[in-house]
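Lab meeting minutes (informal)
Scribe: AK
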Amino acid sequence: HIAVAFDTDAPTKRHIEYPAYKAQRSAIPENLITSIPQVYELLEALRIKVFTVDGFEADDIIGTISRCADELDFKTYMVTTDKDFSQLVSEKTYFYKLSAHNEKIEIMGVPEIKDKWQVSRIDQVTDILGLWGDSSDNIPGVTGIGEKTAQKLITQFGSIENLVANTDQLKGKQKENLENETEQALLSKRLATIDRHVPIPVDFDGMKRQSPNLDKLKAIFTDLEFDRLGKRIIGEEFSVNQESSVSTSLRTIKDVKYDYRIADTIETRESLIKKLKSQQAFCLDCETTGLDPKTAKLVGIAFSFKSGTGFYVPIPNTEVNAQSALQEFRPLLEDESIGKVNHNLKFDLAVLKWHGITVRGKLFDTMLAHQLIFPDLRHNLDFLAKTYLSYSPISYSNLTQDSQMDLLQIPIQRIAEYASEDADITWQLYEFFKDLISEKELSRVFYEVECPLVPVLVEIESNGVKLDSQALVSFSSDLKDELFDKETEIYRLARMQFNIDSPKQLGEVLFDHLKLAESPRKTKTGQYKTDAKVLESLAPNHQIAQQLLEFREVRRLKNTYVDTLPKAIFERTQRIHTEYDQAFVATGRIQSHSPNLQNIPIRTKRGKEIRKAFIPRSDEYVLLSADYSQIELRIIAELSGDENLITAFEVGLDIHTETASKVFQVPYDQVNEEMRRQAKMVNFGIVYGISAFGLAQRLGIRRGDAQQIIDRYFNQFPKIRNYMDDIVEFARNKGYVQTMTGRRRHLPDVNSANVTMRNSAERNAINSPIQGSSADLIKLAMSAIYQEFTSKKLKTRMILQVHDELLFDMWKSEEETVVPIVQDKMQTAIPMSVPLKVDIGIGHNWLEAH
């Protein structure tokens, strides 16, 4: 028998009881999200039973199945890396612990678990976890107690319950912490305990191993290029398509003829420059001492313009000599008439930018090309070389002897061979991909949207944004005082002190002690609910609930932004230099990281103080914000061709008021705030394929009423319904959807038999052309603005891109020139029949400008 369990998006009882459960975890990477449906598809082809249950984690499902298997005397292996599964081990159930990096797999039974955890009974594992906590799940444990102390205490007292009942046997801080955090310890134990009674039908006949669907499996392995795995499961006769296969006998540098040379004299460099100047395009590849362009030293540059050839130019280690060598290549690198080819172009352009060189010319990034052609595959150079060239390049780890030395310590001949090979491979991939881009009808999005954006992002990143760090330090102190004041006020309103972070204690204070509600909602375990939704419902009539909400918000802002942003200031420039990824998100949206400046809050008073700290570079500058107004609604109007929606935008009506007028059948000037609120929710919900159930939840109304609103909406805007139906049908037939510029999003699950997966794919089919076109629009606008600023040699600089907004450091004297350029380029980036509106704001900080 075999089965696989998955988590779902629904909150579990752990999240309900303790809202901070797993709250510290980063968002799932987009490329991992897009891989999950492929895992489902593979399991379906392998005919392996899959379990998912809303409200329960995969751990709980496995715990339930293993309990049932125990009762039938089955021998069971739980395949995982999660230490929490230690609590489920029994005489017949084993922990099959997977290991990374080819380490030995561990299979642990009762003796091994007892020894590992130093317990006399398996059920004591949860007691140790309760005291120790679990940082990966954000389970707090008890202050000052680690793994060893937890084991010692449980050995002495047997359980947390017995321990907290006998704290008089303890001393000092340990006694104090346990007495103060008794509820937290018991809560932590509950959070760590796997539920073995999930309400699912455990039918072992349905879990019997079956022969896989070979046709489907072959198709999946071919699509994913799983050649070796295909041979293991299907047989040695299996082979993926020749075009996309990773050959089992890869060539290396030892097997091919090549001509790699070192240009380390004035004469050899002059000869190389002459050759490169005669080319229509050439490949360049920078070798550096690090991955941060701001601080990385440039060790050398490799060039190639013909398969099998490469030239390596070492850059001297001293600053003066390095600049001298670079100056020889500056005219060539800045020559707009010669194309430049690279893999991960933004990094190399950024390195050269920080060394004073702005690369120009028609650009071709093989990584971006592959991300557009095959978005769900890997995009590193090593993978592409093996996949498309049947070639295994020299690995960086071999070059540096597994990072025991940096590039400056490696003999120049070895670096030259490594770097020249990279440039040579990239050139060969360029020759392969340039035809494929055309064949796949991706020329417009690649050559007009993505490649021209690379130098724009390099410019934005190097410009950086200035932060008034002292203002944030002062604000942090204010927030600290405010947290103390709010904590004091909460205790005053409660007429007692308690642990504000304990949902159990908080619930008892609110509903047993203060009796704020006649019939308070409870969790499945019988504990009072104290999440944000509950507090928001109480806040209008009870000051303590409002204070609790504000306490939580203040602490979040302080920890996430106010205390963190000043640490991101780069000492040399005294600015924050975020980094952008332009093609990692399936819709094409630009992502900001290190730090992420796209989620700086603006709606709350305190959040506004954070934006207020973003300031111009000097007194001669101001900040200019340019923000698309309701861009996604305008794009859906364009894509659907709905006359009512287009007319509303053409005459400049408030779109949400107009929608409310039509949906609720009242005159435009009689629409009230509640009607407009509901219409706004529908307008934006439609973009994401919202259901009646989802709308009902958001508006707090009955499902039937929500369905009536949606029905009336589509009666008034019928072509939007037609667009949604047509685009889903297009996806079913083609397997993908596309934006106005031809960017494709592949949706392999749109025809899946799994209803959940199919519904998700259909929502993505509706939303992706809208979000993707919005992303393409602002990318085109950014490139057009950058080119215009450059040609006019303006001092104004683009410094941030945040969703539908661009932020500029504008030289005050250029306002009359800059504002019309920005407005025009943003409104005309993609010709549309629907008028685009750009809101312009100017101020002495980001808050004022926005």
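Next up, CB showed the second protein from the same session:
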Amino acid sequence: MDQSAREIIEREFENLREKLLDLTMRNQLLNFRPRSRTVEVVNHDPEYIYSYLVLNQKKMKLAPRIEEEETLDSEEDAPSSEDTPSDELEGPAEGIPLEENLMEVEDENILQTALTEAELQRRLFYINQRARTMIQEQGYNILYLALGFLEWRTEGEPDIRRAPLVLVPVSLERRRAGSSFSLRWDGSEIITNMSLQARLREEGVELPEFSMPSSPGGVSAYLKRVEGAVSSMEGWGVTDEVQLGFFSFTKFLMYMDLDPSSYPNWDEIVDRPLLKALFSIEIDDDSEEVDIDSIPYRDLYHVVDADSSQIAVIEDVKAGKNLVVEGPPGTGKSQTIVNLIAELMASGKTVLFVSEKMAALEVVKSRLDSIGLGRFCLELHSHKARKKDVLNELEATLMEAEADRPEAEREFRRIEKLRDELNEYRRALHEPLYSIQLSPFQLFGMKERAEKYFKGELPFVRIPSPETITPDEWDEALVELRNLAKLAELLPPLQENPWSGTDPGMMLPSDVRELEILLESIMKTADRLTASLKEFQERYGFMRVKTPAELRGLAEVVSVVAESRPFDLGVLESSIWDRYRADAFTLLDKLESYTRKREILDRFHESVHGVDLEALLRDYLKESSSRIKFLSGRYRKIRNEIDALYVGRAPENDYEVVEDLENLMDVMSLREELERYSGVAERFFGPMWNPENPPLEDLRATAEWIVRFRDLHSDGMISERTLECISRGLDGEKLLSDFEDIMEIYNELEDKLSRLQKGINTHAHVLFNSMPEDVPFRAWRSRVKAWSEALNLLPLWSQYLEKKRLCMKTRGAAFIPIIESGIIRMDDIRPAMEGNLADALLERAFREIPTLYTFIGDLHEAKIREFRELDSRIIELNRKRLIHQLNSNMPTVFGGAAPNSEESILSGEFTRKRGHMPLRKLLKLAGGTVKRIKPCFMMSPLSIAQYLDPRSSQLQFDVVIFDEASQVKPEDALGAFLRARTAVVMGDTNQLPPTSFFDQMISAEEDSEDEATAADIES
């Protein structure tokens, strides 16, 4: 340690030490003043009282003065002690000689007082209450019977002060409420008035030590020695006055205990990390955190239940760390202390447990007693530290039968396996996952809260790549989506918002006005188009047009109808053209063929129609094929018949004759067929059909027009009105002109709509879910009208879209649809996002982490139950293991101890009947052996100073544990810290600080408390 750090420690140490020193005249040990909480004994000398109380260890009764019988009722009318001046308490009542007011001493155990019965009982009740409270709260006795007083004064001051010389620690007893009190020596050591001793040194006087004489004359001898020591001091003297009152050596004892010169190893103590930490000197702490789940169970000695935080504290202390453990009542501090003491003793370490309050110490001690470990703890909390009691307890511990070592390996192996399995699931459940760094446990909580918020109907959103989302990205998305949802609440629902499907960008007031003008113009143009179409349709009978596609279809119809000529209405309406139009063109083909070949008929007589031309041609072909046909009469006969059919001379060549006959047969067949289908042909063409003089070109053109017309008719574009117009004859040019006017209006409308769509960045298929040519004119008109009426929403809609674009860039883009659909509102954003993110990440985690996927709740609960049962079993085994270990480490005190060894000294004290050495001396001489018997000392800050000699290296401890540290003043705690290498300070910063109530009890200041009432005394 560098010199500056050492100087800081020693300076601060001395500052705290000085706070313990009280050599002022407020100290009753220096300046005794009789008060309402003191009682003077007037009939016995100190020698007799010491002999009776201490040497004979008998009780003495406190008796009132002799006077006429009084009842308690009359006493209540007398002035109370509160109303009595303090100087009146120093002697008998006025006007009554002391000798005449004293009871003749008939009983040797009577301590005569100068107080009335009522006043004596009131005072003793009050004193007893306060003394018991002090023991209960602080753990030590401050009620003493002072034997002999030194009258002294400082030079230059006339006031005489009185200081007690021999202080016998006593206690008050009574058999029942309302009965008289008796006085008993409490068995504690009787020591010198050290405060007076220190104060007199300032005056150059050395007060002799008092060493508990074992003979009746010891007190008188001591008083004479004091008288001799002060004989040179003018005005000083010794009296045999006896007073019962409150005195305390605590602060002075602790002050003396903190004298650095009393510690042979002071340099080493100052250099300890503990002291550096106490005085805020920076020290290097390179110790690692202990993984409590990796500790083998055989290395743990928990003797009561402990949670993970308590185990962590214990393991840190075992690792040599200095700790401050904070926790309010009910957080298991006493449990932790019990386990910590057990673990340290199991590690072979010694423990100094310190508590200012007796109650806190008794809580820990009773817990240790209940599990069989209390006998390894030495309780030295002041009034508990009676020599004989301590020796009896040490001897009883040594005599305890040694228990067998319990076997626990099987339990250790099983519980470690269960621990590993449970921890594996716990780690899987609590390990932060993915970029968002949330554990499955947290995700389950998020999902459950979301499901509860939405009452089991959480809107589902599929989040893309949820595992890559970071906390910052998620927070950004949450903020932007909430902003978007807030704007959405100011707009109509998306399905009702006329601007849905548009993206106008920034809209300034001038932009809105320009748009308003365009919308008005479009509505007017649309109205003109509607009116023109209506008039056109009524005039020509065309079916009503609703869409641009239908308008283009009408253009084709108009072009066809414009080419029409007057027709028979029946032909136009005939459905034969729909079913048999191919037959019409077949008839036309036959008619053309007949017309082309019909000239052959002019070369033959009409009689040819009655001849079987097919048979004639067959016979002729047969006969004409012979080379000697000229010799055949049959040939000549057939030839003559053929020649007769010709109007003129028949061809000489047989081949020409055959060709003529074949052509004749073909024409005659066509003619017969045309005659046979003449009725059908008339249905197709009406009066235009004339096979003998047909207008072939007109017929074919008509057929083609009718086909086109009938197709249009079947599409529903033509009405009966149109047919009538055509049958009467239609002005095609007028029709085309009228339609061109309509198309001009349509083109104007189309141009304006195109400008509008571009201006607000939309398209027909977005607005109407249709192709532009299929959007009805009326739909456009309605939408434009809605836009015109909602122009005030357009700037807000523009802002909404800008926010939406920001949201689209975040990891929350998938939630936009359910915001726009109105499924969730702004307040629903967080639970909706958290629920869906948790769901998505848990789904992924279950796929990737087998421990989660294979988790079975019932099996897990069974493991937990088995773990708890084993843990309880192991706690029981740990108690037995530790008891066995501590018993095995007991020193050999009875028999075989080396002369003058600690064991020999202790054995001698066990066998001694009386005259035992003081505890401080015993611990100084045999402290090491006592610590082996009882590795844990349980003390108060006072008892440490009183019984642990700092000059003994055997009275150093490995660990000091402070309980309820907030109740201990820093200067009171120093003695404990000097006696240990490691400290554990446990307490509650919210607890009230130490009170000065008990300091006031031993102060020489005037009383401020109320005395006990008569009702108190009788209770």
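CB comment: DSSP finds 42 helices and 13 strands in the chain.
No objections, moving on.
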